[in-house]
Design brief:
- The chain is mainly α and about 140 residues long.
- It contains seven helices and no strands.
- The chain has one domain.
Length: about 140
């Protein structure tokens, strides 16, 4: 992630929606609740790097989708997504996952993919699931 200087505004796509993004991540990957701040920053940096190469319109759509996720539960639960409990958050995300509008389902699956990329893309996350890539490829991994 490219940091901002004192004279330059942040180009972070996640900064304005950080709280809801983190709430989504811990809902999709419950082990993320154990992350400390440096681990969260590493996760977010992986996601920022992945979306930095995407068109600006797509980054804006991601922000808009996260804002919608944040405020949608107010209609049903009277609280924002980040303020909900685990079960209510899961219900909201299941609703989006199975939404009749394809664009919303695609947005959810894209966001879910970013959550997994950020969590399991960190060396600690990869290690936790036993991922140990070998420069010799799959054949070397299969012989272990």
């Amino acid at each position: 992630m490219r940091g901002a200087t004192a004279n330059e505004p942040s180009r972070s796509a996640l900064a304005p929606v950080r709280a809801v993004f983190r709430a989504v991540v811990v809902t999709v990957v419950p082990d993320a609740k154990q992350l400390d701040e440096p681990s969260w920053l590493a996760l977010e940096e992986l996601v920022e790097d992945a979306i930095e190469i995407r068109p600006p319109a797509l980054r804006r759509q991601l922000q808009l989708f996260l804002h919608a996720i944040e405020w949608l539960p107010v209609l049903r639960y009277g609280r924002t997504f980040a303020a909900l409990g685990d079960e209510q958050r899961s219900r909201v995300l299941r609703y989006l996952q199975n939404h009749p509008v394809e664009r919303i389902r695609c947005g959810f699956w894209g966001l879910r993919t970013l959550a997994f990329l950020g969590y399991y893309g960190r060396p600690e996350g990869a290690h936790a699931i036993g991922y140990a890539p070998d420069p010799r490829g799959w054949e070397a991994v299969q012989r272990r």
